[in-house]
């Protein structure tokens, strides 16, 4: 015949283990989020730098136009 105390001890052990794993996961999650909670910094670009054109016709762009049959 089974002893109910043996099963109860095993169940409590598993429960406490799972609680510990859950608490550990929360702690790791809090550490992972903390760098994202840093204060915002201002942009280092001036207004003119933000407004300038950044498009450049490189060899990759030319190859894309050629492969996709865009008029050059």
From TrEMBL:
Annotated protein name in UniProt: Twin-arginine translocation pathway signal
Species annotation: Nitrobacter hamburgensis (strain DSM 10229 / NCIMB 13809 / X14)
InterPro entries in the cross-refs: Formate_DH_TAT-contain (IPR014177), TAT_signal (IPR006311), TAT_signal_bac_arc (IPR019546)
Residue ranges of coiled coil: none
PROSITE patterns to which the protein is assigned, alphabetical: TAT
């Amino acid at each position: 015949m089974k002893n109910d105390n043996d099963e109860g001890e095993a169940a409590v052990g598993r429960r406490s283990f799972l609680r510990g794993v859950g608490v550990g996961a929360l702690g790791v999650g809090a550490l992972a989020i903390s760098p994202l909670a840093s204060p915002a910094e201002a942009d280092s670009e001036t207004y003119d730098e933000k407004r300038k054109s950044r498009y450049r016709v490189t060899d990759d762009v030319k190859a894309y136009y050629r492969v996709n049959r865009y008029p050059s």
